[in-house]
Write a structure and sequence with these properties.
Blueprint lengths: L5 E3 H8 L3 H9 L5 E5 L2 E5 H18 L6
Antiparallel strand pairs: 1-3, 2-3
């Protein structure tokens, strides 16, 4: 198994400047990968955060007609 840093929901929300509720929605939509540590405890993998940001960045460049980085 590849080790990945795990982030709390509030930390991811702060990084992406969205609400915690939106982070939970993004996990449910499959946009972010999460690990459940208990019934009320969830962590988001750093790798999925990086992938989400990279995908969004790539799509924005394509929409603006810019070359891929």
């Amino acid at each position: 198994m590849i080790q990945s840093e795990l982030w709390r929901v509030y930390r991811v929300a702060k990084l992406l400047d969205v609400s915690k509720k939106r982070i939970y929605q993004m996990v449910q939509e499959g946009k972010l990968d999460a690990v459940r540590l208990g019934p009320r405890s969830m962590r988001i993998t750093r790798m999925s955060i990086d992938q989400f940001i990279e995908t969004g960045s790539r799509l924005n460049r394509e929409q603006m007609g810019l070359p891929a980085a």
